[in-house]
Amino acid sequence: MKTVAIVGTGLIGSSFGLALRAAGFDGEIVGVSSERALAGALAAGAIDRGAPLGDALVGADLVFLSQTIGRILDTIRHVNLMVKPGALVTDAGSTKCEIVDVARQSITRCQFLGGHPMAGKETRGPESADAALFQGRPWVLTPDEPSELDTEAATEFADWLERIGARQVVLDPLEHDRLVAMTSHLPQLASTALGATLADTRGTEVSGSGLIDMTRLALSSYELWRDILATNAEAIERALSLYIQELEHIRENLRTRQLQEEFERGARLAEKLRRARQD
User: Fold this and answer.
1) Predicted model pTM
2) CB neighbours (10 Å) of residue 258?
3) Which CATH number, 1.10.3660.10, 1.10.10.10, 1.20.1050.10, 3.40.50.150, labels domain 175-278?
């Protein structure tokens, strides 16, 4: 792999460029993005130069699409005549079914392999990029067929994921979307709902660190989340139904000891997540 094209040099794209550099990649990294985002990525050292999409893709061995989902879908529909045979096109989209379906229909000259790095921050842009962003974090790959992971391009990409410290996880696109509806999309909406509930409440200055922790995700941009919610609506609706059901159970048992079990179940999950981060 000698040349990487990063399409979308925001937080994830620029962090990927920095992570590759930190892991020893000495080839060229070309960015495709807005003028402002390219300037930020150049300043951060995440890319070597900016270029129009066609110019960036013509010589790229790896094409990394790290845009919003709507833009990823649009780019996938237009890259087939620009990429070189033998290249690998992958993405960082937070939902996978629609992206993989469109790629299957649109990309024929080279390989597409769906991906989702499970890492991020509440702040956006190349200014927030971090070479260590993916270390210890899951990087989900969603091949149509298991054999897609055995190609030379996919094997080399997986090797670089290991070098930047990500944990490779392989999932079916549908299974991925069902899981992240619970583990990623539901937490975002729960935080947003809490923030919106208290937005006009007097006295929020009388609060501890718990409220700050619980509303961290509420800082996330609707522009980013709009496409995520639209492309995984059914799974998210099921996740919200389960969460609402649990909240109703808590409301009905505020004066009973049945909530002890809910506290214990919640604590077990919280401990499990923290142990996993430490391993």
Assistant:
1) 0.90
2) 12
3) 1.10.3660.10
